Amino acid sequence: MKQTLLVVFALLVCTLTTVAQNRKQLVQARNDDNLPARQLAEIDSVIIKHQLVLEECYREVKQHNSNLKGKLVVRLVLTPEGTVQNVEIPRDDIANTKLDNCLTQKLKRMVFTRTSPKQGMQTVELPLNFADANED
Fold first, then answer.
1. How far apart, in whole angstroms, are the C-alpha atoms of residue 102 and residue 98?
2. Does 35-130 carry CATH code 3.40.1340?
3. Is residue 130 within a helix (H) or strand (E), and if so which, with residue range?
4. Are 124 and 76 in contact (CB under 8 A)?
5. Whole-prediction pTM
6. What residue ranges do the domains of the chain occupy?
7. Among 22, 35, 130, 133, which has the minimal tally of Cβ within 10 Å of its Cβ?
8. Residue-wise pLDDT tens digits, 3-53
9. If residue 13 lies in a helix (H) or strand (E), which one and from where to where?
10. CB 130 within 8 A of CB 70
11. Which helix (H) or strand (E) holds 77?
């Protein structure tokens, strides 16, 4: 019985060692400097995927201000890892702090594709237009 447990334990240790080595290889592969640059189409895809979340901010604030509509530009600073390091709103025709804060919070949670650390930070400006669907 003890021999069987030792064999099972030894197999378990070998398996865990192999898993740890595989994880190390995966981490090394993820740090590959040869990753391609992040394309604008990839960024647009992430924004479109989260469009409803951004519109939720607008709907929430519009409940308190029925005339709320307009355009704004958000500036995102993306890290090579794909996280959003900073969000700024350099142009804001709406001028609503609650909307700005909500959008900033939602945008900071987005995750974009990874890119090579050699690419450095990437700054992107995105125009957003908020109006009711039945308005022109």
1. 6
2. no
3. strand 122-130
4. yes
5. 0.70
6. 1-31, 35-130
7. 133
8. 444 444 443 344 444 444 544 444 544 555 677 788 888 999 999 999 999
9. helix 2-30
10. yes
11. strand 70-78
